[in-house]
Design a protein that fits this description.
The protein is mainly alpha-helical. The protein has two domains: 94 residues, no CATH class; 146 residues, Cytochrome Bc1 Complex, Chain D, domain 2, CATH 1.10.760.10. The protein has ten helices and two strands; from the N terminus they run H-H-H-H-H-E-E-H-H-H-H-H. A two-stranded antiparallel ribbon has the order 1-2. Helix 9 packs across helix 10. The relative contact order is 0.08. The structure holds heme C.
Length: 305
């Protein structure tokens, strides 16, 4: 359902809205009185009732449960009745349009009566049908864990074509992209002061991983981080051969940059808690974290061939 946005927290919001509604009513009343007119009691009551309903149903956020809604509307109806029946005069004024509709003998009233007596049962019938008729559940969709990636992604203003992009830190000593460099350094110590370029990037990627990712993906990269089980789907287990080992490095880059919100439809219906890291990390930091994930798990990214 739609929601009208007003700054602040819920109680403040509600107070503001109620104050605004109150002054609107006082204002309308004042203007009408200036012109020597006034709204009939019946119209006033209906207006207040409808305004209260709109505020409770569509403006108040977060939405209130329907049982509470019924209680509130019931109370408001009761209070309105007390108000209009507080003295004989206003009660008579309130009843007048109703009695006139029921008993008025001009053609106009007869027409109103016909419309009311046709529309009212129809409305009630429709309402009853709506609450009683079974609703069809949405069909269950199977979630694709590795949906087809887009052809390219735009991250921090730069477009990466997934088929051709490479991790800029998967490089040998000369700074050239290398498919073998990980293999050559499987057993190296990232904390070695004389570590190779590649191993320095792995170490930096590790620092990024432990600052950002291990809460969910686990300090052993096994998807068992301390927050992991609060989520459905649970965070990916990189140590399992079914995740990054199955994927091209650029696919992983796309997933890290865009997170759960960037998944296409078949990645739903369970929205993923994976954050879109482009909002928190630089492009380089994301590539380094990915480099670390492959090095640490000992898996190699899949190639396009
Ligand atoms: C709030 C928890 C959370 C954090 C923090 C988090 N992730 Fe995730 N991540 C998830 C969840 C949940 C999934 C599984 C659902 C999905 O694929 O979106 C996932 C999936 C992934 C995948 C996809 C794996 C696959 O097989 O498709 C990659 C890659 C990934 N995360 C990398 C990272 C990196 C890198 C970081 C840190 C920069 C990180 N994640 C931080 C929750 C998290």
């Amino acid at each position: 359902m739609g929601k009208i946005w007003i700054p602040g927290y819920m109680p403040v919001q509600l107070l503001l809205i109620l104050t605004a509604a109150f002054f609107a009513f006082v204002g309308i009343g004042w203007v009408l009185r200036k012109q020597g007119r006034s709204l009939p009691k019946f119209t006033q009551a209906v207006l207040i009732w409808v305004t209260a309903f709109i505020i409770l149903r569509f403006v108040l956020y977060p939405p209130i449960p329907s049982a509470l809604m019924k209680t509130y509307m019931g109370l408001i109806t009761l209070v309105l009745f007390l108000l209009v029946s507080s003295d004989e005069e206003s009660w008579a004024e309130f009843k007048r349009p109703i009695l006139k509709t029921l008993g008025g003998d001009t053609p106009g009233f007869r027409r109103i009566r016909t419309v009311t007596f046709v529309a009212l049962p129809l409305l009630i019938g429709f309402g009853t049908y709506n609450t009683v008729a079974p609703k069809f559940e949405e069909p269950i969709e199977l979630r694709t864990v590795h949906p087809a990636p887009p052809a390219s992604v735009k991250v921090h203003g730069k477009t990466f074509t997934l088929q051709t992009a490479e991790n800029p830190f998967r490089v040998d000593e000369s700074g050239e992209y290398s498919n073998e460099v990980q293999q050559q350094h499987v057993n190296d110590n990232p904390f070695d002061p004389d570590a190779s370029k590649y191993m320095q990037y792995v170490r930096e990627g590790g620092a990024i991983f432990f600052q950002n990712c291990h809460f969910c993906h686990g300090d052993n990269l096994d998807g068992r981080g301390m927050f992991a089980f609060a989520f459905n789907p649970i965070p990916a287990n990189f140590a399992d051969s079914g995740t990054i080992a199955q994927l091209q490095e650029t696919f992983v880059f796309w997933r890290v940059a865009k997170g759960g919100p960037g998944l296409p439809r078949e990645g739903f219906p369970w929205a993923s808690a994976m954050p879109p890291w482009e909002q928190h990390l630089t492009t380089d930091e994301m590539w380094k974290a990915i480099l670390f994930e492959y090095w640490h798990t000992g898996f190699y990214p899949r190639t396009w061939e």
